[in-house]
Fold each of these.
Amino acid sequence: MQRRLGTDIGLTARMFLTMFLLALVYLLFIAVLWRLGISLAFLILVAVVLLGAQYYFSDKLILLSLGAREVSEQDAPQLHEIVNRLAQMTGIPKPKVAIIDSPVPNALATGRDPNHALVAVTTGILDQLDEQEMQAVLAHELSHVIHRDIAVMAMASFFATIASFIVQMGLWGGFGGGYGDERDRDRGGGGAFIVIFAVSAAVWAISFFLIRTLSRYREYAADRGSAIITRDPSRLASALLKISGRMQRIPDADLRQMQAGSALMFFPAITRGSLGEIFATHPSLEHRIARLQAMEVQLSR
Amino acid sequence: MSTAAVQLEAAAGLTPAAKVGVLFKRLPPGRFDLLLADVRQLLQLQGSDTSLTVEEHTDPLGFEWMILSGGSRDYQDALAAAHSVGQSLTEEGLGDLLLACAFRFQQDQQPVYWIYSYKQAAFYPFVPTGDHKRDNAEELRLSAIAKDELPIDSMPERWYALWDLPL
């Protein structure tokens, strides 16, 4: 029996469509700015500095901002062993490994390319997952590294950063004096600011949703990557359920005891697959589990 | 359940063990004995075709079980008997007293159970691995494989354990 998963063509297509729409919005944005005579060079400089810093120092920024500490092989031999094994299986250099002291279960990957990657996990996730589940989660994070998601998302948010910068400048007080020069007056004066402000706000809002959509697709792709590496999508599904908080995990409680205390039990209404998802960077748990289950069916054939 | 068993055997290496347990909530006094008598009569009607036996068991939590067990050929009979118990209670309006039905399977010498919840009218897998531990990943895998053949409880937070099942 051959157990393999190919590429998800539908997902890839949607991902490219999103990137295309994003590029289209950005091109229109540049065209408008250029038509209105805004100094693009200055804006791009600001964005480059902001994103460049994020891009180049992302591993160190994470270490600083989340209080993650890099751990040596002596400090966390098991964790290193899993990361090492996964790096060998996927043929990327072994990323640095860090631990965050937090009871909230979480894991993340950062670094601009596979040579500068770092994976960090919280003490909470280490407590809750067994070794195989941890491997499935780390395979998901390594998939982000392999797919260069940090770089992709940094590029995707490049012009969104410019747009938000303009919006903020506008909110701070009409772009200051420097812009109100003759050039603008020739083109109709203050009207141009309003147009720039409105266009920037629109670009910012539209790109916000597109970037989030793209981010969710990257999550699905990383889930798929994990399933391809470990050939065990259910292990990741199990890990996701366990770290999702108390409500949605498979219970250890006994059915009979639930029965005895049933008067005290109630199921809170959990909103599922709600509209809220379009605001989210991660897809809903149900959607991720459903996709992992579909991969399991594919593997069992 | 019988078509699902075929699928599970092919895709996940589960073999049905012809052991089915019906779990009851507190039954009125004497009601359980009547049920047992009914099932025994049903089995007698089938004559020597089946080696299915029926036993009663009270677990440490005080819940009553009716356990049907037989050889590998008796799987269908065990399903039919469990079904008839459920039906006769439901016809009397006592359907509320049925809690769950557990179907035992073997997978590499390990027991794996499918639990039918009467309240949800749906199945879920239960893979105990020892001291109050269960293999969630395997449970999710089995539910994915059986999804098209069995009505599976779509909310994993309701997949309650049944520790130390007497079958």
Note: The first strand of chain A starts at residue 68 and ends at 70.
Amino acid sequence: MDLLEVKGLCKRYDGFLLDHVSFSLSPGYIMGFIGRNGAGKTTTIKSMLNLIKKDAGEVYINGLPFDANETECKLMTGFVTGAFDCYKKSTIKKLTAVTRRFYDSWDEEAYRGYLSRFLLDENKRISELSAGMRVKYALALALCHNAKLLILDEPTSGLDPVSRDDLLDIFRSVIADGEHSILFSTHIISDLEKCADYITYIKNGRLIGSSDVPSFCDGYRLVSGENEVLSEKLPHMIGYKSGAFGFTALIRSEDEKYFSDCRTAPADLESIMIYTEQEEK
Amino acid sequence: MKNLLYKEFSLCMPLQVPLFLCFAFMIMIPSYPYLVAGFFICNAIFYSFMTAAMENDVTFSLLLPVSKAQIVRAKMLFVQIIQCVSLVLFSGVAVLNFFAHKNAGNNAGTTSSLTLIGAFLLLYCVFNLAFIPRYYKAPHKAGRIFLLSAVSVFVFIAIFEGFMIATEALHETVPFFAFIKTYIDTFPTTAAAWAYQGAFFAVCVLIYIAANEVCYKRAKAEFEMAEI
């Protein structure tokens, strides 16, 4: 059974439409949720968690419909945002004392372990923590109530490379038991290349693709060739860049037959995102 | 629910709440519109909402394993507890006033009495209905919403206290005001005064219960549609 299933999620704002977004995540995996700033990643996550009212769609956590079982689903879910800024004047100790009361499955021993591992001082106020430490604290809270699904909204934004790498190691260790999963939204592709098993890509509120990383990348090719043939091949390109020495373009794998006179190479996540985002140019 | 209430008292209750409850002693001031003391309690409640808004309490609460309806219900309960505590204090100080001022009455408004306690309940209804649903529609606009609610509260105070001032001025010439002065706007020392004021207070309690239920339903509906 999928730990997370999102079906036909829709949300309309003036000038923006989250358009029937659907994807699913099995236990034991990390899914990278990618897209440019403003693509709809946070809107999707907030709609999933009922932080904003969705216009349509269904969300299932471990098979339970979220809307009808909000409390049970939240018990199975931990949400961590890169900008944890609640009760900044309170100490970690005070905030944890309030939070732990809501969870029967709270694991105090694990909590102490995470505090020690993340070098978190219980007597510090939230405002005294760096961005990375705040993410680690939010993560500790989520992990100690044994959340099966962690939903992380740009947790590595604003972190230095060492902290980011440290966090990615933690993510891998969290899912190692095969029971937990992580949905991880970011626009920092290098983070996903290190830890994601699945990719869900959203652009202007519409789903571009959702599959395991090798299959996702396999659906695209990078081609390069002379500028003279550029115009005739343009209709088969997703996006391209041209210069004095020729062009480089992203194409769908099934369109490779149109580029037999060009050099082709596998596409990586970053290239797919960069070229896809210039589609309209 | 008790966990949410614990959160309200330990994280959302600023120092202003216990501090402003001390304004109950305003009822000791001779010749003063005592209902104004109720405004300070509303002010204390506003500060708790303001603290919650500044500390992103809505986001924090929504991530806990509770529904939006439970969050609103707990906040309403917190407000009602503060308001009930204030009523207990007002009642105690009203008795003190009676003995301290030898039942001198009040030229500037309602006399310290059971009627006054009932009037505080009506004032809280006005505040809760004007403030709480609007807060859940847009928590970040708490300050502006409070200004509008404060106007509603002062309009109520002006009407109620104005009526009692009219009673003070006209009770010797108009029989209706004589009745109000004898049984309603006085510290109850006779069985009849207790009966009339008790009936008025009971009606106020019923109105308070009904108004808070309406307030909860409106706040819940607003919160369901809110964009956090």
Note: The longest helix of chain B spans residues 191-225.
